[in-house]
Design goal:
Number of helices: 2
Distance between the termini: 11 Å
CATH class: Alpha Beta
Order of helices and strands: EHEEHE
Length: 97
């Protein structure tokens, strides 16, 4: 399994807009990509910091997901009042999921 991880420093008063955008824009697109496994958005409402994680069954699926999600990802980050940071990519080497 493979993961894409984005860490965003947004504005605390915009965190709800970011959550709404993740749910309405990112998730539907991700779910439509073959090889999608799961997605998570972790948020600290007090600081505006958020971590978005998507999980993919293969490296190829992760690449397809990246292409499909670029616009939705940028829109969600903008909704949070953050700037678009680089994405980090990892192989999931241990999991209880």
């Amino acid at each position: 399994m493979y993961a894409r991880v984005t860490v965003v420093q947004g504005l605390p008063d915009k965190i709800e807009q970011g959550i709404d955008s993740f749910n309405s824009a990112v998730l539907p697109v991700a779910k439509g990509v073959a090889g999608y496994k799961a997605a998570f958005l972790l948020a600290d409402r007090k600081t505006g910091k958020a971590i978005g994680i998507t999980l993919w069954e293969s490296e190829d699926a992760r690449r397809r997901g990246a292409e499909a999600l670029d616009a939705a990802r940028a829109a969600t980050i903008k909704a949070m009042g953050g700037s678009v940071p680089p994405v980090e990519e990892f192989e999931v080497v241990a999991s209880d999921f």
